[in-house]
Write a structure and sequence with these properties.
single chain, 225 residues, alpha+beta, 4-stranded mixed sheet, 3-stranded antiparallel sheet, 6 helices, 9 strands, elongated
Length: 225
């Protein structure tokens, strides 16, 4: 689904459900899409955190975790971190939202996340020393690794969703015409886009379920809008 498809659905839904319903390209680009995408990402991350591995949960909940991961898949990226050797801190990637996993640079042994109030017991453990079993904290500067001279680490993380923007040019009658070259397209799967559209419509006071939005999309396609 393109940004043009998304904008057309929102225009169509607004016109059918609100008196004088209209959403300008500027409102679509700068208000509706950023807020709706952020709302949906917060929902996905909140659900994902409920079903982390190694917790006493049922297989039904594991299925829920897999479904959420599928939705997040277009946003899961990898990065090599190179902490400063004098303090063990590596800044977050510029588009960082949430840590998916952290591994050592060679092989896939986990580098564990620890809370600040548990660092002392990990740092001074003789059974599980951080020299051979590294850990990290999250603080405002970024990731703080122990041992601080860890060298490098591999990060899997959820990034900020790229913007969805409907670019346009004006014709001789001053009407906005879709510009596919300069528009920014959604990276989500279609089912997720429908949820984002639903959240965007709620911002302007239109409450629709995904089934109704799908129907609107078909009506737009059938009428050649």
């Amino acid at each position: 689904m393109t940004s043009d498809d998304v904008y057309k659905i929102i225009l169509y839904a607004a016109a059918k459900n609100k008196q004088n319903g209209y959403v300008s390209p500027e409102d679509f680009n700068t208000v509706l899409m950023p807020v709706a995408q952020k709302s949906y990402l917060d929902y996905l991350l909140g659900e994902y955190q409920k079903y982390q591995p190694m917790r006493p949960i049922s297989v039904v909940e594991f299925g829920q975790n897999e479904r959420i991961r599928t939705s997040l898949a277009p946003l899961i990226y990898g990065a090599i971190l190179n902490p400063f050797p004098y303090n063990g801190i590596s800044p977050f990637p510029s588009d960082f939202e949430y840590t998916d996993n952290m591994w050592g640079l060679y092989g896939f042994y986990n580098i564990r996340f620890v809370q600040q109030n548990r660092l002392d017991s990990y740092a001074h453990s003789t059974i599980d020393p951080v020299v051979s079993n590294p850990v990290y904290l999250i603080q405002h500067e970024g990731f703080h690794f122990f041992p601080e001279d860890i060298g490098a680490a591999k990060l899997s993380y959820v990034r900020t969703p790229p913007p969805i923007e409907w670019a346009y040019t004006l014709d001789v009658n001053n009407r906005a015409i879709y510009d596919s070259v300069n528009s920014k397209q959604p990276i989500w799967y279609e089912a997720d886009i429908l949820d984002i559209v639903s959240r965007a419509l709620r911002i302007i006071g239109v409450n629709l379920q995904s089934q109704a939005i799908t129907q609107y999309a078909e009506e737009i396609k059938n009428t050649g809008q």
